[in-house]
Amino acid sequence: TTGFIDARTNNGNGGNIAATSKDSVTIQNINSSANGGDGGNVRINAENTITTGFIDARSQDGSGKDGEIELAAAEVNTGSLFSDYILVQQSLDQGLLEDAVFNIEELRKHEFEQHFGENFALGSVTAASIRERLGTIQQQTGLKPAVIYAIAPPELEQPQPALDRLDLVLLTPNSQPIYKRINVSRRELKKLVQEFRSELNDVQKTNTDSYKPLAQQLYQWLIKPLESELQNQQIQTLLFSLDGDLRLIPLAALHDGKQFLLENYSIAAIPSITLTDTRHQDLKDTLVLAMGMSEFTHTNLKPLRYVPIELSTITEQLWQGSSFLNEQFQLDNLRHQRQKTRFDIVHLATHAAFSTSGNKSPYIQFWNQRVSLNELRQAEWYAPPTVELLVLSACETAVGDENHEMGFAGLAVSAGVKSALASLWQVNDVGTLGFMTEFYHQLGQEEITVKAEALRQTQLAMLHGNVRLSSGELWGTDTKINFSSVSDNTKDQILSHPYYWAGFTLIGSP
Length: 510
Hints:
Layout: E1 5-6, E2 17-21, E3 25-27, E4 30-31, E5 42-46, E6 49-52, E7 55-56, E8 69-72, E9 75-77, H1 80-93, H2 97-116, H3 127-141, E10 145-151, E11 166-171, E12 178-182, H4 186-200, H5 212-222, H6 227-232, E13 237-241, E14 266-269, E15 288-292, H7 307-318, E16 321-325, H8 331-340, E17 345-349, E18 352-353, E19 363-365, E20 370-372, H9 373-378, E21 389-392, H10 404-415, E22 419-423, H11 429-443, H12 451-463, E23 468-470, E24 473-475, E25 480-482, E26 493-494, H13 498-501, E27 504-508
Parallel strand pairs: 1-4, 2-5, 3-6, 4-7, 5-8, 6-9, 10-13, 13-14, 15-16, 15-17, 17-21, 21-22
Antiparallel strand pairs: 10-11, 11-12, 18-19, 19-20, 22-27, 23-24, 23-26, 24-25
């Protein structure tokens, strides 16, 4: 076991590195790169396990050849993702922004491959091809999009200050990539994100604006450096491709001191632009398959009393489709209904979690079984035609650690689902019912062309007090629901605090 092995040189060939063990070898990082010569060779042999961080054996200026890397052991674990971060930062530092976009897309691809143990075909990736895709989105939807990449390498046991920073890259349909470097550490980012979420997702604080200073600081780091370009280019839709803890940010609630981010932009979170199916389809004449559970008699999960009202309101008042409740909510029936009828929207109102923290594996609770994410992906319920939108309406959807977005966005990537909508934290039953019914109302409006804009208009309606409880009824922009049959809660309430709307996140195609 050793720390950082540094055999690099700025003049000539890099040093060769060799290690042999009858047991295991653990090395923090290895650098045998060279400027002005060949990269040094790296050869490590062990009978059991080789574990390393990043390995850099390149000829950095291209004047020589890259060094050979040979790792021979029963098991090899390398910090390939960290190597990807190094490549991203090096291309940014050298001003090679087109290369940086390619490297970021590769980084994202490797993250998902490592998380799911699958290979994802990426195709041809250039900044030009991504600009072309953004231009196509604009032509098809009438809304001008931009991609914002936020890159913050993971924390190391031994900090490397030069690498510990936040990099922002903006890509629009008709300009070269724009790069901004923010001098904030991953630890600072993580701390602020956790504090921000803690302030927002506490129902006891819905009469306060204690979250605002945190919302404003995150805005200063993530949006302000790019603000003038977004305004000059008249961007309307923001597609965020984020790292780790940043995926947990309720982006709509970022605040510039006067307005929330959602008041100026529709927003979606994407794994990467090339891992997202951005082909546009108008959802106006589609059908929704709405399924869910209100009773969880075979589990220790709490009842969801408002689910029957939610399903019936969606399929009988707001959208065309079919609903299935409790005993009818089984994976086999989901698959059967999708095979029998073209349902472009699938709405599941049940307990679910996409956290991988503790002992809670990612799952969706069906009537007769808890289905893991892997089982769901293997069930072929998503067979063609493609599911345009998967909505998870549940109290524990996407709650957890930074891997929740990997699991949820990965469902879209690997299962052929274009977009998924869920909440970043637990929202109470009435708040969820109010949000979901308003969302389907907005999605059906003639002027709404994309799901991200329907989400934005839903959040705006809630922010402006148009979704509220009054005299035992739930009012929306154009809906009124009497829920006295399931609750005696007649307290008047306006659902305008970000607790009720900011957690809902669209992941995938806008």
